[in-house]
Automatic annotation (TrEMBL), chain A:
This is SPW repeat protein. Residues 2-97 form the SPW repeat-containing integral membrane domain. It comes from the Bacteria. Keywords: Membrane, Transmembrane, Transmembrane helix. InterPro entries: SPW.
Automatic annotation (TrEMBL), chain B:
Keywords: Disulfide bond, Membrane, Oxidoreductase, Quinone, Redox-active center, Transmembrane, Transmembrane helix. Pfam families: VKOR. It comes from Aeoliella straminimaris. It is found in: Membrane. Residues 31-162 form the Vitamin K epoxide reductase domain. This is Vitamin K epoxide reductase. Its main location: membrane.
Length: 119, 210
């Protein structure tokens, strides 16, 4: 589940981003985006730990596309650091979100299949 | 129970023809991840210069060649297109190699072919194309960048190392197709959904090595 931990950490980073990148009080869209996406990342990555919502991390791909789009399309290059941050977090998230839960083990269905055929 | 676990364990680590080893074994994948990690660090270092978070960039061979390449109009145009420095994008590509290299069991060539092929696409075609672009930079930009050349060589080594696993995964999918001639079965096998045919195809491949 290391990928889910990385996603949670990216969420925490987004929650801290408005303070690190010193968003001004009138940059409401940056505040809302960073805080809302930070919470979304944490919730979806932690939801992947529960067996009933174990596929929740796939929704993070949507969040990744959103972050990349928000960062790239919200200004003209050279982009301000806060937007580059969104772009970079989006790219990182897209990379990590496709990693399955229990990635080092065979998929659950294969484990069940192998067990049933060897017993 | 012990025999059953031993059987599953030996299947997970079985050699896969035409190779005398398992291309998905950790001993095969960890070196790829380490080398990709080194390339990530080098590319990130160049990105730090492009972000002007550091004042200069190290180049023991071409002097200020690396700085001139990183400050070139081509690099600036790429920056305008992408929104972040091109070296940062390179760092992501190498990090992707490492992340996708780490994911999956030692039999992922059968259990998660989609992951192996995604890894292959990231490492092989993208690696080769980026290496060619780096090698062309001497003629296009007019300067050589030592660190870019190092990462280009790493890309080619990574492509060479990753090839066997991608080949085995494609062979497995080809065998499933040959047995079933069903797009549905092939799709299931690609997505890593177990079926009798997929199980049989994997077993046949491994048995050939024994």
């Amino acid at each position: 589940m290391w990928a889910r931990i990385v996603e949670s950490m990216l969420g925490v980073w987004l929650l801290m981003s408005p303070f690190i990148f010193r968003h001004t009080s009138d940059a409401t869209h940056l505040w809302i985006n960073d805080l809302a996406m930070g919470c979304t990342l944490i919730v979806l990555s932690l939801a992947s730990y529960w067996s009933k919502t174990r596929g929740a991390h796939w929704l993070l791909l949507v969040a990744a596309v959103w972050l990349i789009g928000f960062g790239r399309l919200n200004g003209t290059p050279p982009l301000q650091p806060a937007l580059q941050n969104n772009l970079i977090v989006g790219l990182l998230l897209g990379m990590v979100a496709i990693v399955p839960n229990e990635a080092s083990l065979p998929p659950v269905r294969w484990r069940q299949q192998e067990n049933s055929t060897t017993s | 129970m012990f025999d059953q676990n031993a059987q599953i364990d030996s299947d997970l680590n079985a050699a896969v023809p035409p190779y005398s080893y398992n291309p998905s074994a950790w001993s095969q994948r960890v070196p790829i991840c380490i080398l990709a990690g080194i390339a990530t660090v080098i590319a990130s270092y160049m990105a730090l210069y492009q972000w002007r978070l550091i004042d200069s960039v190290w180049d023991p061979v071409f002097g200020d060649g690396t700085a001139k390449v990183l400050d070139s109009k081509v690099a600036q145009t790429m920056d305008r297109w992408i929104g972040i420095p091109d070296a940062a994008l390179g760092a992501f590509a190498y990090l992707g190699d490492a992340v996708l290299g780490m994911a999956g069991s030692t039999r992922r060539w059968q259990y998660r072919p989609w992951l192996v092929l995604l890894f292959g696409i990231d490492v092989i075609p993208l690696g080769v194309v980026s290496s060619v672009l780096v090698i062309l930079q001497g003629t296009v930009v007019g300067y050589w960048c030592f660190l870019c050349l190092v990462t280009a060589v790493i890309s080619l080594i990574l492509a060479y190392w990753a090839y066997d696993e991608v080949y085995v995964s494609l062979s497995y999918l080809w065998r499933v197709w040959s047995k079933t001639h069903s797009w549905r079965e092939l799709g299931y096998a690609f997505c890593g959904v177990p079926s009798e045919q997929a199980l049989a195809a994997g077993r046949e491949i491994v048995e050939e090595a024994r």
